[in-house]
Design goal:
The complex is a heterodimer of chains A (751) and B (114).
Chain A (H helix, E strand, L loop, with lengths): L10 H7 L30 E4 L2 E5 L2 E2 L5 H10 L2 H9 L2 H9 L5 H8 L4 H8 L4 H11 L8 E3 L7 H13 L4 E4 L7 H15 L4 E4 L3 H9 L5 E6 L4 H6 L4 H13 L3 E5 L4 H4 L8 H15 L3 E3 L6 H5 L4 H14 L3 E3 L10 H14 L6 E4 L18 H11 L10 H21 L7 H9 L11 H14 L3 H10 L3 H16 L8 E2 L5 E2 L19 H8 L7 H8 L2 H4 L2 E6 L8 E6 L16 H14 L3 E6 L6 H11 L4 E5 L5 E5 L9 E3 L7 H16 L15 H19 L6 E5 L4
Parallel strand pairs in A: 4-5, 4-11, 5-6, 7-8, 8-9, 9-10, 15-16, 15-17
Antiparallel strand pairs in A: 1-2, 2-3, 12-13, 14-20, 16-20, 17-18, 18-19
Helix pairs in contact in A: 2-14, 4-6, 6-14, 7-16, 7-17, 8-9, 8-19, 9-19, 9-21, 9-23, 14-16, 19-20, 22-23, 25-30, 27-29
Chain B lengths: L10 H5 L12 H13 L3 H13 L4 H11 L6 H13 L3 H17 L4
Classes of the chains: A alpha/beta (751), B mainly alpha (114).
Amino acid sequence: MAEPDDARPIGRVRFMDAQRVNLDGFATENAELGMVAYDSPADPTPSLVIRDGRVVELDGRLEADFDSIDEFIARHGLDLAVAEEAMALDDLAYARMLVDPAVPRAEVVRLAGGMTPAKLAAALGPLRPVELMIAMTKARARRTPSNQAHVTNRLDDPLLLAADAATAAAFGFRELETTVPVLNDAPSNALAVTLGSVVGAPGVLVQCSVEEALELELGMRGFVSYAETVSLYGTHQVFVDGDDTPWSKALLASAYASRGVKMRVTSGGGAEALMGGAQGHSMFYLEARCVALARAIGAQGVQNGGIDSASVAASVPKGVRSLTAENLMVMLRNLESCSGNDALMSESEMRRTARTLPTLLAGSDFICSGFGSIQRFDNMFGPSNLNAEDIDDFLAIQRDWGVDGGLRTADTAGLEQLRRRAAQVARDVYAWFGLADFTDEQVELAVDAAGSKDLGTTDTLAVLNAAHTIKTSGMTGLDVVSALQQCGYPEEARRLLDMLAARVSGDYLQTAAIFDEQMNVLSLVTDPNDYLGPGTGYDPTPERQAEIDAIRQQRSVDDLRRAQDDPEEFARFSVVGAATTGTAAGEVVIGLSPAVGRAISRTLSGLTVSEALAEVLAGLEEEGCSARLVRINDSIDLGSIGLKAARLSGSGIGIGLQAKGTALIHRRDLSPLANLELYSVAPTIGRADYRLLGVNAGRHAKGATPDPARNPYSDEAIEARYHTRVVALVAIERTLATGGVPEELQWKGES
Amino acid sequence: MSGREASELSVEGVVGGELGPDDIRISPDTLRHQADVARAHGNPQLAANFERAAELTAFDETEILSLYELLRPGRATAEELRARAEELESRQAPICAAFVREAATVYERTGLTA
């Protein structure tokens, strides 16, 4: 006997070690490094002292010791009129208000206005996951949920960017975010995605995430319609390392507003720990500072929930919970929540799904602050938690739960046309400005491409040149409107002009603003969340619900019936007359279900019924038995079909075969549900199995010993794949089980 | 800031050159109106942002980018910031001026000056 090897774990453990979740990093809590989600010993006790209308102490720190973040929050961020009431409120009392349907959003938002960062963090700490979700449902700003996509590729290829932007818009994304692997390409990417967006749908917002000053310039010149990558951090040092201060960020916010351009800021738990600057604080407390600062500088919204550091937060206990609590905190500060779920936070399909599901179910202004609408490898932000690989999954999950995650099924046939138009628009506009010349072949490659790997070799210098020309020529969004019109794309010209004209009224500067496809602004002001418990708040309209429900994979009984209609197969079967009882000792009767030869042509494993039958008959012949075919017309139950066949059989042995392929061997003296052999998993029953069924039935008829069949093993979700078809096939059988006597059939095999 | 209504903006006008960048710019009055809306919807900070923005409508892109640059860490001395505040004051941007003065004081104390 071999000695146990101490270094090598047992097979069960080796098997568990090999699962993908174990590629993820999991950290022991370490408060010193900021590797703790909630409640670090260094987190301050909430405090607020106001003297003569001026904050002189904030969360345990005296005015003289304020860092730049404290100072900005103290001077601008708090509603001092409610501060005393809010700070005196018991943490649990506030937490309970959040989940109490009788307390309206306005009240919890009013109170949060007077809470310091540490106070709001303390009040949200006790909320359990489901309580967080209820609170989010009530607290988000906009009634109608929405979603944002990433649209990027490794090559910054403008034709593919345009086609993918149009595709994302067709799938329902209302904000598109692009970025660049090569910074200098940025103006070209912004233009290409904007062009694609106006082909895809009206009213789609576009941003290009790059360095602060360039992003602002792109916005001011009308190449993008919103900005998001204005990063905030929870400690003074990390903030300064990011080359900004609260005042410079606030100035940026005002700069965007001065040109009528929507903006939000970015933060996220774990960022400071990742940059080695958490100063012993918990992720949630530091994020509470970021969110308070976001409100203080006058941003209308925040992208948070980990973002680039999501996997840092997810590596510690309760980290994923804290990411969702961050989103809630934004909502309670009366800001738009763009709720993370962007950076891929795990190698595990289950963990990444579990991370996003609460946001999707609760609903948010934007479920993802970057659903990768392109494939993982093309996402220049890094893979998202959800990507093109997952769009059908997401659509199915929306439908499963009956919730609106902002996506819809795009017409797959129409997508080709849409992508072609987007690529052509990009080509024509680039040519119009003399930016680049693309060929018909390049357009077609972009139309068909599932990702940039399908484009072959491209001229990346051409993109760089185009971007340089856009940047230096002084052209603006209005010039692009003009080019679209003159290139023969009046609808796209109108849509782009509408986006630029929206700057004039400024309605989309308000909190949580998006446009619907009729260019109505939906925001905190025009579409306020009015959730007050069951039966209130957002529900999809019947039209929207139909959009959520009608995924392209769904099939009706009629669809199945058409697919099963095969006159050639049905013609093989003809009725001889009423079935009689046989007397020959070597005879086996094969009982067929009502739809055989009439309405169902194929079994679930893909064989025609005739192909299955031919194998059964061959098996019987091998054993020297004769066979008769009898269609049972008064039952669809396989046991009953097999037993009736056995009772008509000379040997007393019968076979039951349903048109969908399920089969058994029966004997005339048994009860219906007791049979000799059952071949139950129709999708996996192949020719060899039907042959064995025939052989074994023959052996039973002769009194010999058969080698019983074992159902083939499968680890696939066989039931998920086939149950809907089974329901339809059974329904078809049921319509034909009209109660007539058993009929003897003649069958013609392949000649 | 031409005063044209958004509904008057036509693609033909853009192609014909009758409409220019000024026609798609938000006006200070509109921003102040949006500030009132934000305040009425429980967000005085957003309102304050719009009021700063209303002043900035009079500044061109280069000036705004330069002001942003000046406010980044370690770019300016407190005196330089105060001088810029004076300039903003003289150009009818008192809110922004006060904002920059506040920054100067805080930057001095927290080590953010050049």
